[in-house]
Amino acid sequence: MTQKHTLELRVRYSETDAMGFLHHSNYLTYFEIGRTELFRAQGGNYRRMEELGLFFVVVKVDVRFRKPARYDEVLTLETEISRLTPARLEHCYRLMRGGELLTEGHSVIACINRAGELQRIPEDLVQLTQEP
Amino acid sequence: MTQKHTLELRVRYSETDAMGFLHHSNYLTYFEIGRTELFRAQGGNYRRMEELGLFFVVVKVDVRFRKPARYDEVLTLETEISRLTPARLEHCYRLMRGGELLTEGHSVIACINRAGELQRIPEDLVQLTQEP
Amino acid sequence: MTQKHTLELRVRYSETDAMGFLHHSNYLTYFEIGRTELFRAQGGNYRRMEELGLFFVVVKVDVRFRKPARYDEVLTLETEISRLTPARLEHCYRLMRGGELLTEGHSVIACINRAGELQRIPEDLVQLTQEP
Amino acid sequence: MTQKHTLELRVRYSETDAMGFLHHSNYLTYFEIGRTELFRAQGGNYRRMEELGLFFVVVKVDVRFRKPARYDEVLTLETEISRLTPARLEHCYRLMRGGELLTEGHSVIACINRAGELQRIPEDLVQLTQEP
What we know:
Four copies of one chain form a homotetramer. Helix content of chain A is 22%, strand content 41%. Chain A has three helices and five strands, in the order E-H-H-E-E-E-E-H. In chain A, strand 4 (88-97) and strand 5 (100-113) form a beta hairpin. Chain A has helices at residues 26-41, 46-51, 123-129; strands at residues 4-10, 54-65, 74-84, 88-97, 100-113. Chain A is α+β, with helices and mostly antiparallel strands and 132 residues long. The first copy, chain A, has one domain (4-129): Hotdog Thioesterase (Thiol Ester Dehydrase, Chain A, Roll). Chains in contact: A-B, A-C, A-D, B-C, B-D, C-D. At the A-D interface, helix 1 and strand 2 of A face helix 1 and strand 2 of D. Strand 2 of chain B pairs antiparallel with strand 2 of chain C, so a sheet runs across the interface.
């Protein structure tokens, strides 16, 4: 079972700031793309999950910014599931420029329903993300 | 009836780009804030309207950028209703820095329901926005 | 000489709004990506141009929103140069979902230096973008 | 010396996502506004600091999301300096809706020059931010 996913992202002009760097809030957006694509690679479909009334919400996130990224650079994002409990999923992220580590992150997401109540992550989803 | 509204906005760091300017996509966000606050000043409540299943969608927008805005500048946005039909509202926008005109815009918004079908703008709303 | 470029974009979660649609301000960001990639396909490098002290600024933009886009949809953006003068470049944009036209746009960009003064678009750049 | 600052922010439509919540990446933007306004209340001027070639970069951030915020809600952000060393500033953030705590955050920022080298935070700035 795929527990890790790698993708490439090119820094958009709209994502830069007056310092000439990728604005730090966009890293959370990049990490979200990483989670989505890992989920897709595992056979999941987040959009369909939402149509069923289940949502993932971010409960906790921490980021360590080591080096800045700049406009038009192509970066590599590695996303990995680091922990899985019945109601929570934890991911680790490493954003690289070539062999150079720019940023590391970690997040905890939880599964809720439309009423905002915590839900067990559905069985078939757990199966998708657990080690065999 | 109020047909015009003025508000102040301070340019956020996250809204700037590598050129050091307010990124041009954010003007559409500023205009939206102008529309919302004009609507509120008229006694409307857009959030409640959405809860009733009615939405305003932007159908058309054009913007003329004259001079750039920079980080931390306090800008003045004037929003005015320029035309009203049963299903559409047109607004004009002028973004100023002191007496200096930076940007002019114009938008057309339409009223739709959850199914995406065009709706008459509700009577009480029309009343709010029509000249006496 | 390439005067037209097509690329695919997947709608990010962070780009959606409470209506469930791609927020309309993001179309300007998409169009900017289209311009950049057309420029790259023509042999240009916008980042290097900035390092030389030349910048493209958006002078005018208009957008016609026909149908909304939603989270996770893969859209096709066609970008085409519609007019070229010594100091200005005009582009047309068509954003499609499959064969369905969602949005059309048009922009005028101008070349400036660090002082914000209008500049002739460099010869080699003109050559890149003119029809033979 | 002011070590704490409180401000109000209204959630913008463009900041919401398809779940109907304030998208989590925007909290980093809110925290940045909190830091800027605390700095201003202390007599600092971040824009002038940048003109002198000194920049604050975010080195580390962590956020704990407790409850979601929604469109048009007026939130209260409390920003406090929690630690000060010669080259780093740490802030704590609490985002409230009325008396209800929605989100807590913590960040570490460092002072760098144009070359990206770590700099001592200027004496007069230290004075501004140290307890008497």
